[in-house]
Design goal:
The chain starts with a helix and ends with a strand. Helix content is 31%, strand content 17%. The protein is α/β, with parallel strands linked by helices and 754 residues long. Bound molecules: 1-deoxynojirimycin.
C-alpha cells in the first residue's frame, strides 16, 4: 500500500469542504436569477448590434435607454477597450443588479492578426494549428473587451457555389469534427469551461445549427431538404464534437431544414441538442432569424415568431428585438412559462460567471495596443499561411525540373490583380485586420529577387479592360518564370456571396492565356474562398498553387513556399470540380447502382451509356478531396490490417482493427505528408459512401526516410445510422485504405461478421 491511498480521502474531504464554501457559477447564476424581475430576466436574452437599427421595421431601438434598465444582456459589434468599457460601465453601475454585458463579435480567422480564411486553414489538416490561431485570436479579442466569438462555423459544405464554404473546414465530417474541437479549445482555453475565467479566453459558438451549408443551388439562406440520415451522418458530427469539447454557445441558422426554419426547429434545438447531446450552454439566434420566421411563413406576427423561436430552444435573440418586445407578454399570458425563461437566463448568467465578468467586467485599455500583433502572432500567421497552401500540380519544364521551387537566380515576372492588393489578402471576415499590416506577394518577391524581379498588374479582378495586358506581356517576355496572382475578390465568397460561375472572374483567364502563349514556365497562384473550376488552367499551366486568402503574412509565406525555403504541404478539404454543372460533388458520395468504373473497380469503363454520368463532361473531380503535392515524392506501401475478420460483438466490446502503411520519402528534399485513412462498408442495411475519412496523420520525412503510420478502427469509427435509424456497427465487408488522397491508395479488406 502506498501512503497516497490513506492521504487522498482526507485531502478530498478538505477540498470538498472548501469547494462547498465557494458557490459554483451555476449556483451564483441561480442566486442572481431569484432576485430578477421578469423584464430583467428577458433583458439577458436580448442581444443587439451596438447602436444599430433593428427589428422587423428596422426601427432604431433605444439602446441607451434599455442598457441602464438591464434590458440588454449582450451586444455585438462594439469593439475595442474604450468602447466596451464605456458600455460596460453603464450596465454594471447603472442597472439595478449590475449584471455585466457580454460582448460578442465575429472573430473568425483572427482579430487584429489576420490568419488565412478557415477553408485555407483547414487545408493544413492540423488541429494544433487551428487551436493556436484561435488562441491568439481570443487573446487579442479579449484585450479589446470581446469575450465571445461567433466561431467556429462548423457547417459541412459540399457546394462551392455557396460563398460561406470559405468560412468552414470543407466537406468532411471527420476532419470537420477534429478541427471544430481544436477551435473550441483555442477560444475557450481548453476542453470544457475550466479556463474560461482566464482573461485571454472567450466563448466559442458552434454555428450555424444546422445544415446551413446544404442550401439549394448554393444560394445563401436557402432551403435545405435532406434525410435525417444525411443530417446525422454528415452535418451533425462537427456540432456534436464541439458539444463534447464543451463549447458554451450555439447559433441557430437562417435556413429551413426539411420544411422547418432552423431557428424554430424543436427537433434539432431541443430534441437533438439538449435531450440527446445534453448540451447545457446557450443558443443564440442568427441575426434577426427570429423575425425571419415571418417571411419563412411559420408566423404571421411578432408574438408568434418570438414564441416559436423561444419554445423551440433559442435562448437569446440576436438583433430581432422580438424577445424584448414579446416574451414578457407571452409569460404573463401563460403561453410561455417563467421557468422556461429562467432556464435560459440561468445558462447565460452561468456563462458570464464562468468568464469572470462579474469580478472583471472591464479590460485595461492601456494594455490593449500591446496585446495586438505580437511578433510571435505574426510568425504564427506566416506559419499558418504556409501550411494552408495546396500545390495542385507542379510539372517539369523542358529542362526536366519541376517549375517550383523557383531557382534563386531566376528572373521573375509577377503579374495579376492579386499580386499587390493588401486588402484582398485579409479575406472575407477580416475583423480588425488592417491592410497596413499586410505584406503582399509583390513586396516580398521584390525584396527577395531585387533587380531580377518585375511586376505588372495586367488586369483588374473583374471587368474587361485589356489596357494592362501589354505591360504584363512585356514583363513576362523578359522573365525566366512568370507567376500569375489571379483569383476572386474576397467579397465574392462569404455571407451572401454565392456564385453561379466558379472560374477566374473578369478577363483574368484571357490574360493568363496570352501570357502562356509566350512559352515561359507559368505558376498560377490562385486566391479564392472556395474551390474554383479551372480546367483550362489545369491542362495548360504547369504549376498551380491554391493560396486561398492567406492573411497578413501572405507575401512572406508565399515567397518562402515558392522559393522552397518552406515546402507546400496542404491538401484539399473540398473537392475541386471540373465544371459547375457537376456540383454538388464530394468524395464521400454513395455509389449508385450504375456507377462509372473507377480506379478501384475490377470492371473497366467500356463506354456503356446507361451509367451515372454526364454526356458532356467527365464525372470525376478536377482535383479530389485530400489531394495536394509537395516538392518531394512519397510512396505508400500496401495498406495492412491487423486482422482479416472480426465480429460486431468484438467491436462492441472494445476491440479495434489496426491499420497501417509505411510511407517513404522517395524524393530528394525534406517533405511533409498528410496520410489519410479511408473506409468503405458493403453489405450493410443502408448504402454507404464509396469512401469515408476516419483518420489522418501529418508528419515530415527527410529524403529516404520512412514512417509507419498506424490507425485504429473501433466501433466509434465504424458505426453509422442504419436502416432502423440507430447508430450501430453492422456486419459488412470493410475496405480500408491508407492513402495520400481520397482516390488513391491500395485497399485491403476485412470481414466484419455477425
Ligand atoms: C450573420 C451570420 O450568418 C453569422 O454567422 C454572424 O455571426 C452574424 N451575422 C453576426 O454578425
Amino acid at each position: 500500500m502506498n501512503t497516497a491511498t490513506i492521504v487522498c480521502p482526507l485531502v478530498a474531504s478538505v477540498v470538498s469542504l472548501s469547494l462547498a464554501a465557494a458557490p459554483t457559477p451555476d449556483q451564483r447564476a441561480l442566486d442572481l436569477l431569484q432576485r430578477m424581475t421578469l423584464e430583467e430576466k428577458v433583458g439577458q436574452l436580448v442581444q443587439f448590434s451596438d447602436g444599430m437599427a433593428t427589428g422587423p421595421d428596422r426601427v432604431k431601438v433605444d439602446q441607451a435607454a434599455l442598457l441602464p434598465k438591464g434590458g440588454i444582456g449582450s451586444l455585438l459589434n462594439a469593439v475595442g477597450a474604450h468602447k466596451t468599457n464605456a458600455l460596460q460601465k453603464i450596465a454594471v453601475e447603472q442597472s439595478r443588479l449590475g449584471v455585466p454585458l457580454l460582448f460578442g463579435l465575429d472573430v473568425i480567422h483572427g482579430y487584429r492578426t489576420t490568419f488565412p480564411v478557415p477553408l485555407g486553414l483547414s487545408a493544413a489538416w492540423d488541429p494544433s494549428l487551428i487551436e493556436r490561431t484561435a488562441r491568439v485570436a481570443a487573446a487579442e479579442a479579449a484585450a479589446g473587451g470581446i469575450r465571445w466569438t461567433f466561431a467556429p462555423m462548423v457547417d459541412i459544405a459540399r457546394d462551392p457555389r455557396w460563398g460561406r464554404i470559405m468560412e468552414g473546414s470543407g466537406e468532411d465530417p471527420y476532419l470537420g469534427s477534429a478541427l471544430a474541437v481544436a477551435a473550441v479549445r483555442g477560444y475557450q482555453g481548453g476542453i470544457g469551461t475550466a479556463n474560461l475565467a482566464q482573461p485571454t479566453s472567450i466563448l466559442a459558438c458552434a454555428k450555424h445549427f444546422v445544415a446551413y451549408g446544404g442550401a439549394e443551388g448554393g444560394r445563401d439562406y436557402n432551403t435545405v431538404d435532406i434525410s435525417e440520415r444525411v443530417l446525422r451522418d454528415v452535418y451533425l458530427p462537427p456540432f456534436k464534437a464541439a458539444t463534447d469539447a464543451g463549447v458554451v454557445t450555439f447559433m441557430s441558422a437562417f435556413n429551413a431544414l426539411n420544411g422547418v426554419p432552423t431557428s424554430a426547429y424543436r427537433h434539432t434545438l431541443t430534441g437533438i441538442l439538449r435531450d440527446e447531446w445534453k448540451f447545457d450552454g446557450f443558443v443564440v439566434s442568427d441575426w434577426t432569424s427570429i423575425t425571419e420566421l415571418i417571411p419563412h411563413g411559420i408566423a404571421l406576427d411578432d408574438r408568434t415568431a418570438a414564441f416559436k423561436g423561444f419554445a423551440s430552444g433559442v435562448d437569446m435573440d440576436m438583433q430581432a428585438n422580438l424577445y424584448a418586445a414579446e416574451l414578457p407578454g407571452l409569460v404573463r399570458a401563460g403561453k410561455v412559462s417563467e421557468q422556461a425563461v429562467d432556464a435560459s437566463v440561468r445558462r447565460i448568467l452561468r456563462a458570464k460567471f464562468e468568464l469572470g465578468l462579474f469580478e472583471n467586467p472591464y479590460v485595461n485599455a492601456d494594455a490593449e495596443a500591446a496585446a495586438m500583433l505580437k511578433p510571435e502572432y505574426i510568425a504564427l500567421a506566416r506559419e499558418a499561411a504556409e501550411q494552408s497552401f495546396v500545390l495542385l500540380k507542379n510539372d517539369a519544364t523542358s529542362g526536366g525540373k519541376p517549375v517550383l521551387p523557383l531557382a534563386a537566380n531566376a528572373r521573375i515576372a509577377l503579374i495579376g490583380p492579386l499580386a499587390d492588393d493588401a486588402e484582398e489578402m485579409l479575406g472575407g471576415w477580416s475583423c480588425q485586420g488592417k491592410k497596413e499590416d499586410v505584406v503582399t506577394l509583390r513586396a516580398s518577391l521584390a525584396e527577395r529577387f531585387g533587380t531580377a524581379f518585375t511586376y505588372a498588374k495586367g488586369t483588374a479582378i473583374t471587368g474587361d479592360s485589356r489596357e494592362g495586358f501589354a505591360a504584363a506581356l512585356d514583363a513576362a517576355k523578359n522573365a525566366d518564370v512568370v507567376i500569375m496572382a489571379l483569383g476572386e475578390s474576397r467579397h465574392m465568397s462569404g455571407e451572401a456571396a454565392s456564385r453561379t460561375r466558379l472560374d477566374l472572374p473578369g478577363n483574368q483567364l484571357d490574360l493568363l492565356k496570352e501570357v502562356s502563349k509566350l512559352g515561359k514556365p507559368v505558376v498560377l497562384v490562385a486566391f479564392s474562398g472556395r474551390p474554383l473550376t479551372i480546367p483550362w488552367e489545369a491542362a495548360n499551366v504547369p504549376a498551380i498553387l491554391m493560396a486561398w486568402y492567406p492573411g497578413l503574412q501572405a507575401g512572406p509565406a508565399l515567397t518562402r513556399v515558392l522559393t522552397g525555403d518552406a515546402a507546400p504541404s496542404g491538401k484539399l478539404t473540398a473537392t475541386m470540380p471540373r465544371a459547375v454543372g457537376q456540383v454538388p460533388l464530394y468524395y464521400n458520395h454513395l455509389k449508385t447502382g450504375r456507377p462509372v468504373p473507377g480506379p478501384d473497380d475490377e470492371k473497366k469503363d467500356e463506354g456503356y451509356k446507361f451509367l451515372s454520368r454526364y454526356v458532356d463532361e467527365d464525372g470525376s473531380p478536377l482535383y479530389p478531396f485530400g489531394h495536394g503535392l509537395t516538392y518531394t515524392t512519397f510512396t505508400y506501401a500496401a495498406t495492412k490490417a491487423s486482422t482479416k475478420e472480426l465480429s460486431v460483438n468484438a467491436l462492441r466490446n472494445g476491440a479495434a482493427i489496426e491499420v497501417e502503411s509505411t510511407i517513404t520519402n522517395t524524393g530528394s528534399r525534406s517533405g511533409t505528408e498528410i496520410a489519410q485513412l479511408y473506409i468503405r462498408q458493403r453489405g450493410t442495411s443502408v448504402a454507404r459512401p464509396v469512401r469515408e475519412l476516419k483518420g489522418f496523420e501529418k508528419f515530415t520525412l527527410e529524403p529516404g526516410q520512412s514512417r509507419t503510420v498506424k490507425f485504429k478502427l473501433t466501433a466509434a469509427e465504424l458505426a453509422f445510422w442504419n436502416i432502423d435509424m440507430q447508430l450501430a456497427v453492422e456486419a459488412c465487408e470493410l475496405t480500408v485504405w491508407v492513402a495520400p488522397s481520397s482516390i488513391t491508395g491500395t485497399p485491403t479488406k476485412i470481414m466484419i461478421t455477425e
